[in-house]
Amino acid sequence: KCEVQHVPFNPLAAASMLQTRTDIERFIRVWRIVSVAFLLAAILGPWGFLPGPLKYVGDVASWLLWEVLFRPYVLVPLLVGMWLLGLRLFSVYTGWADLAKTYRLDSLRALSPSPRMAWTSGYIGGTVHQNAIKAGATTEGIVLAATFFLFRPSIPPLLLPWEVLDISHQEMKVGVLKSRVSYAVLRVEAVPDFELWVSERSFRRAGIADAAPKTNRQ
Questions:
Q1: DSSP single-letter state for residue 214
Q2: Quick check: 4 pLDDT over 50?
Q3: How far, in Å, CA of 215 to CA of 86, rounded?
Q4: What pLDDT is attached to residue 85?
């Protein structure tokens, strides 16, 4: 006797399958192709621009887009799911998820004394972050956390010990005028995907420059 068991689709469980940058890059490529194909079918189908059987595909895509996806009880959960998926992709791609396996903090309040946290700007994983990450320093290491609670489901606070950190200082040309900006670059050897560029101004304001041991300074 053969029985078919229906398992509900869990987008968060599906997102957890994305474990490496390669997985994410492959997922994004497939997502782009599927999204563009779906939108083209939904727009061109009702106007008769799709030949033969593709016209029925276009009709279905158009019905899904205008009659289903834009219903509030579908659209709201869909947007929430896409937000959580985006956070998961960001966390894995930047190496934050790997760091959280070892250096995760349950709460910033657990630290004593509480570090002085400052909003930072710079780059992480090759993407710009503008006041999205706050940083601070303790005698144990550097504390990193998402600025807003909406970012925290996949970006938990971290306490990176000084002994695992490699801190260097580099300049980068940014903006239309290619102005030179100085950055402190934080790396963890065990997680090569993680590379956080913090402006020197943010680095000093967070008290990291003064708290860092001399062995971590380059």
A1: G
A2: no
A3: 36
A4: 86
pTM of the model: 0.75
For residue 136, give both structure tokens.
């601070």
- Do 159 and 103 contact (CB within 8 A), yes or no? yes
- SS3 string of 105-150? CCCHHHCCCCCCCEEEEEEECCEEEEEEEEEEECCCEEEEEECCHH
- Name the amino acid, one letter, at 88: R
**Taking a C-beta distance cutoff of 8 angstroms, is the pair 93, 23 a contact?**
no
Structure tokens at 94: 């930047």
Q: How confident is the model at residue 214 (pLDDT cuts 50, 70, 90)?
A: low
**What DSSP line would sit under 161-209, residue for residue?**
EGGGEEEEEEEEEETTTTEEEEEEEEEETTEEEEEEEEEHHHHHHTTHH
